[in-house]
Amino acid sequence: MRLTCPICGDRDRREFYYQGDAVALDRPDGGAGAETWDGYVHLRDNPAGRTRDLWQHEAGCGAWIVVLRDTVSHEVFGVELAMSVGEAGA
Amino acid sequence: MAELTGKTPCDGLLPLEIGAVTLVEADPGRLTSVAPYRGGAEALGRALVSAHGLDWPAPNRMSVKGAARLIWFGRDMALLAGPAPAPGLAEHAALTDQSDAWAAVDLAGDDAEQVLARLVPIDLRAAHFAVGHTARTLIGHMTASITRLGPDRFLILVFRSMAGTLVHDLKTALEAVAARR
């Protein structure tokens, strides 16, 4: 598997660290109820199909990236910097 | 007061000459990481040009002026190798002295590319990785900074604590490449 780092370019999967669902970018506000926080912290889907995950280019530039891919076909649809996604959502 | 003797990271390990390749410890000079503060990149770029004659490097590139090098070193970071940073730079960027933190080796020779091909998961052939190109990547299991200094010459930086492993891994690859000659 290869991922295209938005900064470094096309790189081997071994350079990347897998963090998990990119839900971390959608942090609820402090006043959200306990149920919302419980879901944010603990509950994850385990889809066979499209996922949106956070990875870090650990052995390269160090950037956190959001990867859209398919766990069944292994196709990678897109990669973008988590920072730009976070700023767009803020 | 104890008398302490300074040692370089690869003291006692290098130089090596195997087949058509030499591996020697490099002295890149003083190393300073330069990380621009948010919004400070433009002002830092101007300050670097006026103080050191160096342009801020694009990702995977190195700027050179005389003995001074500015090596791209990661997202929003470059490594100034050679001179001490001009004091004015601190206004626009976080400057960190890293001189003793890295082991630096110089790999040179006709088979240098073949040696690195055994250890590095990116294409370092000249068509893709020309003189002045650099990359943060892996060498074996170590994170490294690899820069092409000449047609058959590379500068490799790894964490200082990894100096022994780096020399061991490179020596194994050097011997394997030489054995096929």
TrEMBL record, chain A:
Secretion signal, residue range per the UniProt entry: none
> Tell me, what is one Gene Ontology molecular-function annotation carried by this entry?
sarcosine oxidase activity
List the Pfam families hit by this protein, alphabetically.
SoxD
Task: Name the Gene3D superfamilies for this protein.
Answer: Folate-binding superfamily
Q: Which processes are annotated in GO (biological process)?
A: tetrahydrofolate metabolic process
The protein, known as? Sarcosine oxidase subunit delta
Q: Which species is this UniProt entry from?
A: Sulfitobacter sabulilitoris
TrEMBL record, chain B:
Note the superkingdom of the native organism.
Answer: Bacteria
Protein name according to UniProt: Sarcosine oxidase subunit gamma
> Whose protein is this, by species?
Sulfitobacter sabulilitoris
